[in-house]
Structures are given as C-alpha cells and as structure tokens.
C-alpha cells in the first residue's frame, strides 16, 4: 500500500493514525502542494489523503480510508460512534485553528512546501481564507486566547483516554486538530490534554509539531 498525504493536513493525519494504530506496512509519500498531476491521475482530482491499495486501486476520503484499514484484518480497533459535542467543538475552533496554523506551517519546512512554487501556492490559497500571513502572525493573541479557552472546555466535555483498547471515531477527528495546534507557541495546554496528545501521538506513530512550535 501507499499513502499520499500532506504533513499539515488533519484529513491526512486520520489516515496516518489508522496505519500506525493497526501497525500496517505502507509507503508514505508526501505530495508537493503544487502537484496536481499525481492525485488527478490517481483519483481524478487534487485531494489528499489518497491510499493506493495492494491491488493498485486508489481511494480517497479520510474516514473511508480509516474504515478500510481498520477492517483489513477483520479485527477492528475503532468504534464508529462519535459525539456531537466533539464535532461542535471542532467546528467552533476551526477559524482560530486556521489563523494560527496556516502561517506557522508555512514557516517550519514541511515537505509539501519543499519547493518555492509549492510554498507560494500554499500561501496564496490559504491567504484567501485568513488574509495576509504576516498580519495573522502579528495578530495571533485573540486566536490564542480563544483556543486556550476551548482547550479548557475540552477537559470538561470529553474523556481523553489515549490508551483505551478501542479508539473512538472522536479520537480520529479530535487528535488531528490538536496536533495541528501544537505548531503554535504560547498555547496553554491543560495537563490532561497535553498528555492525551503526546501519548496518542506515540500510539499511532504520528509526530506532533511541539518541537517546532513558533
């Protein structure tokens, strides 16, 4: 199998989590952000993640990939139930997540931005969502305070358990967002949330950005 992905992308992270949780062998390939030809050849559009299965067929949509990988050995490890409260938390955090994440991911040498052209396209596309990157970096405090508040709420509303025998679909939705936020210096991580991120990162073999936070 082969997984095409972006390092920053929460949807890609979901697919990587399933590979790591199930300890499956797969080739991991980061696509350059300006590489439209490869995904269009595989699935007819520019998107990630893309899983090329052992039979050579390709599939996309992150949760479909997660479900496929989880059932390869007929011993699923992921409960499909999910919480509306977690979904609502993610949706409400998204504007601050984007404002904090986009300009910082562009600074830390991610492989999908490994060429001048790929980096420029990322900045161009994401600036259409949050505006000028330099301004977003200079005016981060409100978004940081918003996320700090939401991290506190998360402790109260969700049972953060990175070692439960079966992960929940909520974990596959929540961890990628928290991982993405780890690129932001100055966030105040409640102990239980930081422990959840660190321990789940180790369990699913997907690195965080804490060491590169800016």
Automatic annotation (TrEMBL):
Residues 1-77 form the GST N-terminal domain. One of its GO terms (cellular component) is cytosol. InterPro entries: Glutaredoxin2_C, Glutathione-S-Trfase_C_sf, Glutathione_S-Trfase_N, Grx2, Thioredoxin-like_sf. It comes from the Bacteria. Pfam families: Glutaredoxin2_C, GST_N_3. NCBIfam families: GRXB (TIGR02182), PRK10387.1 (NF007702). This is Glutaredoxin.
